[in-house]
Design a protein that fits this description.
It is globular, with a radius of gyration of 28 Å. The chain has helices spanning 11-23, 38-49, 68-87, 91-98, 134-152, 165-172, 197-200, 209-212, 231-237, 244-256, 266-278, 311-322, 326-334, 375-394, 409-421, 425-428, 437-454, 461-468, 471-486, 495-507, 524-533, 549-567, 571-574; strands spanning 60-65, 110-117, 155-160, 178-188, 289-296, 336-344, 355-357, 399-405, 490-492, 515-517. It is α/β, with parallel strands linked by helices and 580 residues long. A six-stranded parallel beta sheet has the order 7-6-5-8-9-10, sandwiched between helices. It has a four-stranded antiparallel beta sheet with strand order 1-2-4-3, with helices on both faces. 46% of the residues lie in helices and 11% in strands. The protein binds flavin mononucleotide. Flavin mononucleotide is lined by residues 25-26, 28, 102-103, 159-162, 196, 198.
Length: 580
């Protein structure tokens, strides 16, 4: 009988395959100048050429570049695009980017361009007719083969994408119907780093594989053979109290620092809490920071609780994305990135960079007539908020900042605050953007009616969120829980974030360890909220704008508290005499 060709590889060969996959690296440093022999390069290119391709169209070509003068011109093109990118980055990100090496065009003896001909094979190429992008995907697979084969040969490969594609195409003499897919710098190296440089540098982390695997349909995450992860239960289970030892160490260090004891006032407490959250003293600096502005609309708007039309929510989202709002100005000043999350705006929003489309619904229902959302929607919004926190931290952020936008959301906040704290609606309801006495009286009456209708039970926080909404409150609660689970600080803005924090803490009391109250808003419900949470606001300037503005003002205070704990000398180290 003929030997079967359907067997898996023997263990040592299989291990070699997984080894080369695990040990392939994007290499930017440590290239050796020695040339790559033609036969080695030939083997690597032949491996690339064996990639699968749509309809077997083999849309790739490989342009091998060794000429120094040409590489110098290409390096200049990349440098220009790199500088443009750097100019757009917020403070801490720009400093971190400055330390990164993003290309090795001149440090490597060979550069290889992989192109794609989207027309090759004519009109009826199988698969490409329905999905034109499959041509590009095929060329990317050739890159993957090349990258793996190169690793096996001991050759480092660095992919450079800082190019205006047509600019580079012109330098290479590419015909107009060919696209550049990849620019690869190839050469022998002194070593392969054990993990991606971006991970070592703290820029971004690898997501656990279980986050990326879904059973049957999107959202049912979990590895094969395991029960699907219950994302909410998983999230809540990951939240633990502050580390008491790290907090004690921080307090002791504060007392030994070259300053009178207690002289940094509330910031001493901030730094101790940061240490407790991180489980280390000193804690890592809370930078880079990112403000996530969660936007949604509210059915209760129909009750006439705000003088602003509902469309303003979508219009302000456009303003945030265009960089024209106060949150943008304050974020620029504080060196934070602005991300806008559509969790429930009652309008279709154009996809633009900086907008995360995560609509749970097109606005909530009017809570005076029924629940603002279903329990499933409340869970979905909480999980969405937590995933955003996770993605922003995986992207390298070390401090999260809450922001919000939603016309009528101070009414929903007042109802949530009353439900969670037992406060009187007259005490917890404020004038929001500014309303006359008649509208204010109506707003209180609307909150009273909602509470009477739903009879909320604070022991069931999801039911409370579902009763009063909005989607941004539920998502912000998830965002706060996500930060707590990752042990990253989250700076809370005003009354909307406060209402969301009440829900988060009702779901997981230990989440409070991650929360820092950025400011005290002029909304009366916010003072009630902060005292219920036991949080001391860092800034108190009578702000009542939302968007994340008050929290952004507090960002440098939180960062300064951490830096002081890390950088300030102690009496013994500086040789300064302590008070007798
Ligand atoms: C499509 C693509 C474009 C990339 N462009 C660049 C680049 O311009 N500069 C750079 O330094 N790295 C670039 N990289 C490398 C990635 O940053 C790198 O793959 C990532 O950090 C993971 O590291 P690893 O490849 O060592 O696992 C690119 C990677 C890919 C897949």
């Amino acid at each position: 009988m003929a030997e079967s060709t359907a067997e898996g590889y023997p263990p040592e060969q299989r291990d070699a395959i997984y080894k080369v996959i695990a040990e392939r690296r994007d290499v930017r440093r440590g290239f050796r100048p020695d040339p790559v022999p033609a036969d080695v390069l030939g083997r690597v290119l032949a491996a690339a050429h064996q990639a699968p391709s749509v309809g077997f169209s083999q849309p790739w070509d490989f342009i091998v570049i060794t000429d120094r003068a040409r590489r110098e011109r290409i390096a200049a093109l990349a440098r220009r695009r790199r500088d443009e990118f750097a100019a757009d980055l917020p403070g801490a990100r720009a400093r971190a980017f400055d330390q990164l090496k993003i290309e090795s065009i001149l440090d490597t003896p060979v550069n290889i361009v992989v192109s794609c001909d989207r027309t090759r094979g004519g009109r009826h190429t199988l698969g490409r007719a329905t999905q034109p992008r499959t041509a590009d995907f095929s060329s990317v697979l050739a890159v993957a083969n090349l990258w793996l084969a190169a690793r096996a040969e001991g050759l480092g490969v660095g992919w450079v994408s800082f190019f205006a594609e047509r600019e580079l195409a012109a330098e290479l003499g590419l015909p107009a119907h060919l696209e550049v897919i990849a620019y690869l710098c190839v050469g022998y190296v002194t070593e392969f780093a054990p993990e991606p440089e971006l991970q070592t540098a703290g820029w971004a982390r690898r997501r656990p594989v279980a986050w990326a695997v879904h059973a049957e349909e999107f959202g049912r995450r979990g590895m094969p053979g395991e029960e699907p992860v219950d994302p909410l239960a998983d999230l809540l289970a990951a939240i633990a109290p502050a580390d008491a030892d790290a907090m004690t160490a921080a307090r002791e260090r504060q007392d030994r620092m070259t300053k009178p004891r207690g002289s940094l006032g509330a910031l001493e407490d901030v730094s101790a809490r940061l240490a407790g959250l991180a489980g280390s003293c000193p804690p890592p600096l809370p930078e880079p920071a990112c403000v996530a502005v969660f936007a949604a609309d509210h059915g209760v708007h129909a009750q006439g609780v705000s003088p602003w039309p509902q469309e303003v929510t979508a219009q302000m989202v456009a303003n945030f994305l265009a960089g024209g709002a106060v949150v943008n100005a304050f974020a620029a000043q504080a060196g934070a990135e602005v991300t806008v999350v559509d969790v429930g705006v009652a309008a279709d929003l154009e996809p633009v960079p900086g907008l995360l489309p995560r609509k749970i619904g097109r606005g909530t229902a009017d809570f005076t007539a029924g629940p603002a959302m279903t329990r499933d929607q409340a869970v979905a919004a909480v999980v969405t908020g937590a995933e955003i926190a996770r993605d922003l931290v995986a992207a390298g952020n070390r401090c999260l900042v809450t922001g919000d936008m939603g016309i009528a959301n101070t009414t929903a906040s007042a109802a949530l605050i009353c439900a969670f704290t037992g406060a009187d609606p007259a005490e917890a309801t404020g004038r929001g953007t500014g309303i006359d006495a008649l509208t204010y009286a109506k707003k209180i009456e609307v909150v009273c009616r909602g509470l009477a209708r739903h009879q909320p039970d604070p022991a069931d926080p999801l039911a409370v969120l579902a009763a009063f909404g909005g989607f941004e409150h539920a998502a912000l609660a998830g965002f706060i829980l996500g930060a707590a689970a990752l042990r990253v600080p989250v700076i809370l803005d005003g009354v909307i974030a406060g209402a969301a924090a009440l829900a988060a803490v009702a779901l997981a009391p230990d989440a409070i360890a991650a929360c820092f109250a950025g400011h005290r808003s002029a909304e009366p419900g916010h003072a009630v909220t902060l005292s219920h949470l036991g949080l001391r606001p860092l800034v108190d300037l009578g702000l009542r704008l939302g968007e994340g503005t008050g929290a952004l003002l507090a960002l440098p205070l939180v960062q300064s508290a951490a830096r002081a704990l890390r950088d300030v000398a102690t009496f013994d180290s500086a040789g300064v005499a302590d008070k007798l």
